[in-house]
Specification:
Blueprint: H1 3-18, H2 21-31, E1 36-39, H3 44-55, E2 61-65, H4 72-85, E3 90-92, H5 96-106, H6 115-134, E4 139-141, E5 158-161, E6 166-169, H7 177-187, E7 236-239, E8 242-245
Parallel strand pairs: 1-2, 1-4, 2-3, 4-6
Antiparallel strand pairs: 5-6, 7-8
Helix pairs in contact: 3-7, 5-6
Length: about 250
């Protein structure tokens, strides 16, 4: 990352402290016309951001990654969001030339058998489609929050994504879960009803379970694996000059 880019990101950090989410998003669309995109998984956080974008008619392209293994409830909130805001969220799907040989060789549930298989499955179903979705963009808006996991505690509102070559904006980085839920209730925003059943981090159906009281936010994802390795590779951030998955 060049010094000029570093200074620009630092300036965005300062501006984000004084502007509302909608105002900051508008500034980004003016500075990067046609180059701002938002990835949604229809989580609590993502629904809040979609509301900011769509209710203010901001020119931010919204997309989602349809892995082919999502919960029926996720598809329901996708449809309800399209209807509520009169929009069409663009889906990106796994590349069949990668997915079909993988499933043929390993089987449909091989991700339970080894971390390597699970990571390969995540790469095919999520990481590769994400790279296609981000291509040509300059700003990637996400719903990451600092309290999601230990790897995210030091997140700031803006960061440079070396892997994808763009700037990431996390407008809800400092929000608590209670603040997110309160905002959804206040504005009557459609949300995934699985959240009411103990599912806090919702991904693919075979890889997600509800969490128990006192468990970590990410405990319901890939619960059969070591808790220190529960990431899929979508988000990589720099911390103390080292690339870390988050």
């Amino acid at each position: 990352m060049t010094q000029q880019l570093s200074d620009y990101i630092a300036d965005l950090q300062i501006k984000s402290k004084d502007l509302s989410i909608a105002e900051m998003l508008k500034q980004l669309t003016l500075s990067h016309p046609g180059k701002v995109t938002f990835s949604t998984s229809f989580s609590w956080e993502d629904q809040v951001i979609s509301h900011h974008i769509l209710s203010n008619n901001l020119p931010v392209r919204i997309f989602t990654l349809d892995t082919g293994r999502l919960f029926p409830e996720t598809y329901s909130v996708w449809s309800r969001t399209n209807e509520r805001y009169t929009t069409n969220i663009k889906p990106y799907y796994p590349d069949n030339t990668l997915l079909e040989p993988f499933v043929s060789e390993k089987g449909p549930n091989s991700f339970y058998e080894s971390p390597e298989n699970r990571i390969s499955c995540c790469h095919i179903r999520k990481v590769e489609p994400l790279r296609r979705a981000l291509k040509g963009n300059e700003i990637w808006v996400t719903g990451l929050r600092a309290e999601h996991s230990p790897n995210r505690h030091d997140l700031e509102a803006f960061e440079w994504d070396e892997v994808n070559g763009l700037i990431k904006f996390h407008p809800l980085v400092s929000w608590t879960t209670e603040e997110v839920k309160a905002y959804i209730n206040e504005h009557n925003i459609p949300y995934n009803i699985l959240h009411d059943r103990g599912f806090v981090s919702i991904g693919c159906q075979p890889c997600t379970r509800a969490i128990q009281p006192g468990e970590d936010f990410r405990a319901g994802r890939w619960w059969w694996e070591d808790s220190s390795k529960k990431e899929c590779g979508l988000h990589v951030h720099t911390n103390s000059n080292n690339l870390q998955q988050a």
